[in-house]
Amino acid sequence: MPVNLIDIQKKLTEFSAQAGSYETTIAVRQDELTALIKKYANRLDEVRARFDRAAEVVPRLRCAVPVDEPLDAVIPMREVTDAYTVLAADGSQINPSRHTRVPFCVINIGVVKMQVGSGQAPEIVTQSELLDYEGVFAPSGGMISEGNVALMRDFKERSAMMEMAEDVQQPAMAMIDGPLELIREPRESAGFSKILDQYLDILKGYRDRGLSLLGYIDKSQSDLVGRLLELMTMSDADLEDYHQRERKFAGVGDLHVMSDLLQNPGERSAIFAIHSQSAQHFQNDLALHFFYLNVGKVGQPHLARVEVPQWVAVDRDFVGMLQGVLTEQAKVLGTRPYPYLLHRAHEEALVTLSEHQHVEEMIVAEFERRGIPVDEPSYKQYHKDLPTTKTRYKG
Amino acid sequence: MSGIEIGRLLRSGTTGFVVGCRVNQLDAPSLGALVRVPLTEGYQVYGLITDIHIEDDSLVRQLITAEDVPEEVLRDNRENRNVPVEIGVLTLGYEEGGRISHLLPPRPPLSLDAIYLCTPEEVVAFTSAGRFGYLRHILQDEDKPVEELLAAHLRQAKAAQEDAGNEDWFEAALSELITLMRDEYQQLMTILSVAGEI
User: Which of A234, B21, B119, B194 is the most buried (most CB within 10 A)?
Assistant: First the structure.
């Protein structure tokens, strides 16, 4: 038996009691936050002043910043036009591994373009790139990290989608799964700076084409609004000692607070700007903003966090349409609302285990044909790949 | 080559094979239709469509829960996604060197071989060859709705034979069935009843 279920069973009572106690604590914090959002809903100048002060004294401050709508605003969606274009991109990768027979890395990108109202099947493009052999190795030796690969994948997702956005019928919007920020490690490397610069150029390309880009985050764990409200409970002296990791409202995500407000399908929260060290790379028109959106049904709200650049955020009519489009897209997946096109992009991009093995076999075959030495898989990998079904001695 | 390509072979054995096709190819094949798989020059296998099977997957199951599925999403699932439509075919015979046989073929078709619907001329050629020996393959397949398959096949073949001026073919086919099924009275009565409606 892989897990000693008797040991687990013994702990269950205590574990459940701990969970109940934790939930009670969270509920109290949640009530406090809900009261705070009401209290400061229309006191934006006061909130901004507190944020400005905190930004001066807390070097790595990460929180939401109010723009021009009440903190507890509830904005209904606009009616969606009959014809518009939606694009979605997603990516997956085969990370280089010392356990495989040859070092290699593949990035696979799926982009889907749907012309809503056309009655036509969406267009699909899949780009599979085997990275250059030397590109698999870091300058310092060893293989590039999973973070490096994810960074390249994120960048390629956005650039591939823009390539497919030529001559799209307006209005048009493009979405990715996850935040628009490049929050991958290692942020400080030279490679990151180069990709970031290229990424900012891509974002400008979206803007110049009039193509709205958004990041869709399902089941967000973000607490940026909570962090902002927490600042309102602190004195100047407290701010001096503020530590991001010891938080008064720890454990209460923004979803907890916003789900009380956004009850009807298509409703969004106020739009907030993002203040963080990495968000500082996105300036002016590209500055990152977000809002919460109810993509669920009547009586079954389901909130997503949506990130948009400033040039989208300021066009409130268009944001109203984004709300409608995302709600419509999520409705297609019925009882588990999530944008249909994002799911399709994920399906197209996904690299399965068998595909992984097939690519490795292709590379090994080519190496052997050319007389290039091929290593064995690591013995750890060999044993992990063996069938895991346990057998009993029946003698 | 003549006839409409309906898909390509997924897997096969001596007695039958399974064809995969795209949903937009699904207009052409029908239950009981005669098909052929050209292999090498002068050699092809004939069969009868006995089953058309559409698999689901997790996305399709989720889409079922939506109140309304937009046309673009329907077409995406039918044209872009790898929706597995499988067509089961019962092997009825083969042709080699211009000679049609109602025995099982010496070797089955291979993966990805293209499958075509038989044209009326090919239906006439196959069903006129020999003395209805292929009917026993259909009658032996007890897992299939034999009566329905025979009815569909007789309807298709009768029309093709009559267009070719062979007015007696249908009666001869029924006589052969009566002979082959003399010990299966109940099933024979059902088939004759169905045949009466053709």
Answer: B21
For residue range A141-173, list pLDDT tens digits in order. Answer: 888 888 889 888 998 999 999 999 888 888 999
User: Cα–Cα distance between B3 and B161 in angstroms, integer?
Assistant: 17
d(CA A355, CA A360): 9
Q: Residue A326, SS3?
A: helix
Contact A179, A134 (CB under 8 A): no
| ipTM value | 0.72
DSSP assignment, residue A282? S
Say whether A13 sits in a helix, a strand or coil. Answer: helix
Task: Kindly tell me if the per-residue pLDDT of A391 is higher than 60.
Answer: no
The three-point CA angle A279-A284-A288 to 5° equals 35
Of A257, A327, A247, nearest in space to A295 by CA: A327
Query: How would you label B180-197 residue by residue, b for 16+ Cβ within 10 Å and e otherwise?
Result: ebeeeeebbebbeebbee
Q: Token pair of B14, please?
A: 């001596």
Domains of chain A (ranges; CATH) run 84-349 (3.30.2170)
Mean pLDDT, chain A, whole residue set: 90
Of B66, B71, B75, the CB nearest to A333: B66
Q: Which of A111, A300, A333, A338 to mutate to test the interface with B (most CBs of B within 10 A)?
A: A333
Beta bridge partners of A137: A143
Chain A, nearest residue to B74 by Cα: A121
What residue of A is the nearest CA neighbor of B78? A121
Q: For residue A8, report the phi and psi dihedrals to the nearest 5 degrees.
A: -65, -45
